[in-house]
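[READ THE FOLD]
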Amino acid sequence: MANKNNKPKTPSQRAVNLTDPKLLIRFNEYIDHLITFDMIREADDLRQALQIYLVQDTGLVKSHPDYHQQYEKILSLAQFLVSLFLDDKQFINLVETHLADALAKEDLAVMIKDKFDGKIVTIFEDRDNFKRELREAMLRNNQRLSNTNIKINNESVEPTVANWIKDYNSTVGAEIASQIDRINYLTNSANIKNLSQEEKRKVETLINLYEHLKKSSETVEGLEEAVPYYVNNQHFVLTGGKLEIIKEDPVLTSVLTGKPLREVEDVLAEDKEEKKTETTQETAEQDKMKEEILLAYRGDSRQHSVILKEEKKISDKFGSDIASLRAEFYRAVQAKNLNRTIALLRLLTQEDELTKFLVEDKKLNTFLAATWQKQYGPELAEEFKKNPTDISFVRLFLQYILQQRLGLPSGDAARFGLQIGNIFVSLGKKEYNKMAYFDVKSKSFKWFE
């Protein structure tokens, strides 16, 4: 099994000779390693370094066009890994010019849908228009996806990303296709039958991604985020329009209930046997519940629009200037400007800077440690000093800012906390899916404890 720690040596950050074949090998090995382990922060460092190197070596494209092309490919793969950090136009251009490169890397192709969703999660409004622009970008992509020409309406054309989608649309139509129609195309199309297994994998991933982008984010099926919720003490997650049961942890249940572990395991085993006899078919009541959860997660549409405008104004003014974003955050909190504060929390999270804020800003770090000691005791304050980026302290920080400083009701604060948690998840930080959840009984969001 591959070991994340046994990574290839990172290419030097000093001046480099891009025509050195050994260096190109090292870059290729390094990007493969980053893809295998979905190492987002390291991929962002590589992206920024390569952009500088390619700008500095202006003669590479003429003297070694093949090398330049390979470096551009490595850069594009790094960009797909860090799609969350790209602006909308950059990501659309990346899809138009390099999607086939991403699909050719099987490990990256497996998570390509998540990379798209991770970018879409950062868009607070009008996601459907962005999805349409992404589909149009795919229809402009002239990279070859397979080796031999394909036929569309009896005309032989190059097997580009665009032409494969055109062939698919000519068969199933441009609207959302049923799963049966999709499977039928991928199984019975004359163009598909001539492909190797690797080529079939790439085309299938492309088609599935294209169909995924047709789904409206305004629907349960098209919502990019996962929304945890509880009903009758059972933990579920609403994701991709489906209700998924979260398996209970016997040890955690034992701790929470105070019952012996063996007793808890016996009860969970009995529950499992009972559930085997229950139908798995979703009912109309479940469909109603999913719609209810979606509406609750979205919240007030007017506030949604105000926060979006604040986010855009801040982004236009400060860009990725982290020092300015932090300073603006202090000003927004002091002014008790709720919508601007939420916009700044979202932007800091998107830049992967919120947890760094808790660590690097000594004024904030010291203040929070004193606050936690006063409210929760010295033990928790000491633990915060040791591990300020733990989800429990990020959660406490959000609760403190949104509820205590800005006066937001707990349920509304937890909803915003869940939305910020989903941005963390899109950064590859899966542990942040335990930020908050929707309680079906009270019809409100609650913080995980």
Observations:
- Strands lie at 150-152, 155-157, 227-231, 234-239, 242-245, 436-439, 444-447.
- The chain has four domains: 1-81, 107-217, 231-285, 299-447.
